[in-house]
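To whoever is on call:

I kicked off a structure prediction for a single chain this morning and the downstream step that reads the tokens threw a length-mismatch warning. I double-checked the sequence; it's 670 residues and nothing unusual in it as far as I can see. Pasting both halves so you can look.
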Amino acid sequence: MSAHSTFHQTPSIRIRLSLVIGVFALISVGMLVRSTWIQIIGDPKLESLAKKQFQSKILMKPRRGLITDRTGEPLAINLETSSLAGNPSKILKSQTTMHLLAHTLGTTPAILKKKLDPKKSFAWFERHLSDEQLEKFRKGGIILANGDMPEGLSIVKEMKRVYPHNDLASSLVGGVNVDTDGIEGVELWKNTTLRGKSASFDAFKDALGRPALYNSNAQTNMRDGENVELSIDSSLQYSVEESLQDAVTRTKAQGGLAIVMDSNTGEILALAQAPNHSKVKKVMALTDGYEPGSTLKPIMLASAINKGVAHASDVYFGHYGKFKIQKRTINEAEAKEKFGYISLKKMIEMSSNVVAAELALKFGAERYIGALKELGFGAKTGSQFPGEISGWMPGQPKNIKPLTLATMGFGQSIMVTPMQMVRAYAAIANGGYLVEPTLLKRAEGENTRRVPILKQLAVKETTDALLSVTEGEKGTGKKARVEGYLVAGKTGTAQTVDSGTKRYSNSRYIASFIGFPVGTKQSIVVLTLLDHPKGFYFASETAAPLFAEVLKATVSRFGIPTTEKLESRLVLQSPTPPKKLDSIDGTESIKIAQSSAEIAAQSVESASEVNIDHPVMPSLLGLTPQEALRSLKPFSPHIQLHGFGFIKKQIPESGSILSPNIHVTLFLEE
């Protein structure tokens, strides 16, 4: 027998082999039992690992609500866009994908590798791709011809915020970040309302990590954002912004502001500011303060009459233009103005600083400041807009020195916001009621809170004084007149504090005009303000003409009837020169083809025959803007108005094809 055979027959060897076989048999049985247990009973730890591999938590984002103007015109909408995303852990495992992605992003694979976190399964690479970028991805091989992409990369569909009117009311509307969360303006203010409610749910992924099945009930927990309807009118807003920018350019001012408010409801119908492209968009009417200057004088007069301190007919001494108090001299705005005894109404008309100072001293610090607080100064207006300030007034009336009180009489030594000034003047315009300004359109039938604040005597006498500013022989606001309307208002040219010297500057001013048309069916207040106009900086030459332009646009937009009887204007229909008739008694006569009334009648008839099925532009010549609006109402036109009066030219011309939301430009008689 060979040695090999003897070795295998040794008892110790056979025992060892049996033990090994037994151990493996036990392991096999254990594995079989364990696998059976897992398949039938289950294991929590392994189940958790499986869920992590095949399930994921997905956040479903709602559609953001729209921002519209008071007519429903959208100012902020959503559009679907594409974004490049990927799985860093998978990208790091593929050199090909790394090189393609690095080339597409304009970097190197080494730099990209450092930025990728292998522990993460999702990362954004490029958000809100343009069509040009998507085309670049196709050419670069990131997106293949069949739409597939390298493993680990994907194109994700999401929403981006778009502003169809570009910069129109952009400071007010604000903006969002890349995730469409509000960061400025109304987008921030009403972010909770606009963004809606998100919902998260568990989704099963396929072998490539893409969501395959998910719980459809999660959609019931998601709520799209609600729309926000602003009080502004986009058509009026456009006209006001255009007029403001023209005024800023003409006067070489550093900036400007214009507000139009319905003084009965407090609704802001237009709010324009320049420049309108700052990196940080803020609503200066609420967030910035200024010294109002002479525009505060009518507020003081109304308050003094309201408290029984004075009447507009009361006569005060003007100190011939120089009033000494606490070793300082208060001068009139112009050295030539040297008033003796003049009435308080004349003080408003001529804008006397000295007489205003005298009235403030008679009023007294405690009563004056108390009256200003009743009119809303020194407190937020109630608009609830983020960033609104309260302005500033001296804290303790008993500690106010006579010089400070005197300067408060003509609008210095006090800081207000433009919105506070508009609110105070609205109380005069609407018959004595204090209303809360709002940037949101009030619901139909909603009750506006109106607090009676001024007596009728105070309203009447102050309004008469304000009318003298534009209608009086030496009124400072003549250039604020608008044909056909009685305008009550006040100029203001206030010095600003030099940041270097901490004293009032002799070269930097804020020019403003604030007022309202008297006796109109719709009561409105308009404020125009120019910051540091160059050259002839007085409000009478800068802010007053801008006020007239804004008021013209407002009465045209809302069809507010005139309050004065206007002479009928004759309009030549033929573009050729009229034929001269024989002179009579040495005077020259011309033949008028048609009167404006005849042309208007024909145009109204033409406009009333618009065929909705086959619409063409009617002739609008000779119509008023409101008549044109009524005739084109079925097509919701975007109308731009230039000038004032009857329509003398239209674009498109009559006979052109009409379409919904058509842009129409109307040129009116000046």
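Update from on-call: the warning came from a stale cache, not from the record. Cleared it. Sanity check on the structure: The first strand starts at residue 55 and ends at 60.
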